[in-house]
Design brief:
Layout lengths: L23 H22 L1 H10 L20 H6 L15 E5 L7 E5 L1 H17 L7 E4 L7 H13 L2 E3 L6 H11 L3 E4 L1 H13 L11 E5 L5 H11 L2 E8 L4 E7 L7 E3 L4 E7 L2 E5 L6 E7 L10 E7 L1 E2 L9 E2 L4 E2 L4 E3 L2 E3 L1 H8 L5 E10 L6 E8 L5 H18 L5 E5 L14 E3 L4
Parallel strand pairs: 3-4, 3-5, 5-6, 6-7, 19-22, 20-21
Antiparallel strand pairs: 1-2, 7-8, 8-9, 9-15, 10-11, 10-12, 12-13, 13-16, 14-15, 17-18, 19-20
Helix pairs in contact: 1-2, 4-5, 6-7, 7-8
Bound molecules: 5'-O-[hydroxy(phenylacetyl)phosphoryl]adenosine.
The site of 5'-O-[hydroxy(phenylacetyl)phosphoryl]adenosine (DLL) has 21 residues, from helix 5, strand 7, strand 8 and strand 13.
Function: Catalyzes the activation of phenylacetic acid (PA) to phenylacetyl-CoA (PA-CoA).
Catalytic activity: 2-phenylacetate + ATP + CoA = phenylacetyl-CoA + AMP + diphosphate
Keywords: Ligase, Nucleotide-binding
């Protein structure tokens, strides 16, 4: 009698890396050793680090325990811009196997580089993330992160290959084609930004295709802040599990941290390769303890081409003990970037807070944008949000009033709400722009 074939992936080996199962003590021992090496390496090879440390009166030899890291100066995006393009590289140009760059909205792009070993480590950590999120070797993986200078496409691609999946390198955009390929190639997993998955789901519904009818089972989403409410929305829309993946180009790219499919309780940071710290958002000299909310800072522990020490991400979150991978701490959701913070008459507000509240109101969809204007020398915020198809124009007014009330109660700001028709706001094709600052500069 012939046996029924095994479900995809179940027959292929999928072992964890030994570092994934290490205890916290073992991880910290590795961190200390690698931190000493990295700080000395950067000091000896990158003039900017030598200059900074000499100016601050610290020396790599001062690093005796992990807490000593706090004595060393920070690195900022501006440092990479000042040394554009390759001034912070620590290896001769011929040893740089790949370059990526992020355009940013202002100024010069930040350029980052990788040796062959860096690329291999990156793929390994990305593969850890995908495995933790439930992606299995042998699956087909539809990769809709943008390919090119952005680290999303090629980073996620290498991760999926390393895990042993079949990668479909679709890149971002061309939503109709995305849908055709999802239907024809039957991928089990999709990798893209949360707002782009929403765009794809929306477009499917408009084409009369039920997103729940596709072969997709898991989505690994990142590159922009998103909320639990958005997770719920996407999981319901597609009938999938949606997990987070975090990263930034200056530190590596996607795969610095990834989330467990079973727990869905925040992304585990691969602490054998990165040492995270949380800074007090109001006093950068204070490093906060686990559980406290502040700015995330990273030090690379193995990077060769671009070692990065105490890099200020400007991402706001907190660290928590590991669960699915107990030796590695988790990060909470990124509530926002300090540069995305809107200060409205003294009250701080992030787009994620608005997203959370919008998705509590039955008639409102997750398609929204925030507009800041200054009509009478006073800043004013307008939340433009699409009503859902099944919410009539009559009911839209009440939905808007409910949102206005929720924002007042939970955030403390008074803002205008403009409930607009479905399909009237721009759709995401990657990282979505949420804030439109229309004040005269
Ligand atoms: O966005 C890398 C990436 C690609 C991560 C694909 C995940 C998936 P950058 O373009 O350098 O790199 O932008 C990094 O994006 O500092 C955060 O503000 C934001 N970000 C990235 N992942 C998440 C996430 C890539 N999971 C910046 N949640 C970071 C919230 C995220 N924000």
């Amino acid at each position: 009698m012939t046996q029924a074939p095994a479900a995809p992936g179940t027959s292929l080996p999928n072992p964890l890396d030994p570092e994934e199962t290490m205890s916290r003590d073992q991880i910290e021992a590795i961190q200390l050793e690698r931190l000493k090496e990295t700080v000395a390496y950067a000091y000896n090879r990158v003039p900017l680090y030598k200059e900074k440390y000499d100016d601050a009166g610290v020396h790599p030899g001062d690093l005796k325990e992990l807490a000593d890291l706090a004595k060393f100066p920070f690195t900022e995006k501006e440092d990479l811009r000042r040394t554009y393009p390759f001034g912070m590289f620590a290896v001769p140009r011929e040893e740089v196997a790949r370059i990526h760059a992020s355009s940013g909205t202002t100024g010069r792009p930040t350029v980052v580089g990788y040796t062959d070993t860096d690329l291999d480590n990156w793929a390994t950590l990305g593969a850890r993330c995908l495995r933790l999120s439930g992606v299995k070797p042998g699956w087909r993986v539809h990769n809709a992160y943008g390919y090119g200078l952005f680290t999303g496409g090629l980073g996620a691609h290498a991760a999926a290959e390393k895990l042993g999946t079949t990668v479909i390198p679709m890149s971002g955009g061309q939503t109709e084609k995305q849908i055709t390929l999802i239907q024809d190639f039957q991928p089990e997993a999709i990798l893209c930004t949360p707002t782009y998955l929403l765009t794809i789901g929306d477009a499917m519904q408009h084409a009369g295709i039920d997103p729940r009818s596709t072969s997709l089972r898991v989505a690994v989403l990142g590159a922009e802040p998103w909320t639990e409410e958005m997770r719920h929305e996407l999981e319901e829309m597609f009938g999938i599990d949606a997990c987070d993946i975090y990263g930034l180009s200056e530190v590596m790219g996607p795969g610095v941290a990834g989330e467990s499919n079973e727990k869905k309780d925040g992304s585990h940071i691969w602490e054998d390769h990165f040492r995270p710290e949380i800074l007090d958002a109001f006093d950068e000299t204070r490093v906060l303890g686990d559980g406290e909310h502040g700015e995330l800072v990273f030090t690379s522990l193995t990077k060769q081409a671009l070692p990065i020490i105490r890099y200020r991400t400007h991402d706001l979150t907190r660290l928590m003990p590991g669960t699915a991978r107990p030796g590695h701490r988790r990060m909470g959701r990124i509530t926002g970037r300090s540069d995305d913070m809107i200060i409205l008459r003294g009250v701080n507000l992030f787009p994620t807070q608005v997203e959370e509240l919008i998705l509590k109101v039955a008639g409102l969809s997750p398609h929204f944008q925030l507009e800041i204007t200054r009509p009478n020398r006073m800043d004013e915020l307008t939340v433009k949000v699409e009503r859902r198809e099944d919410c009539t124009t009559d009911r839209a007014g009440a939905a808007g009033a409910e949102l206005q009330k929720l924002i007042k109660i939970h955030i403390g700001s008074t803002c205008r709400i403009d409930v607009v028709d479905p399909e009237s706001l721009p759709r995401s094709v990657g990282k979505l722009k949420r804030i439109y600052d229309l004040r005269d500069k």
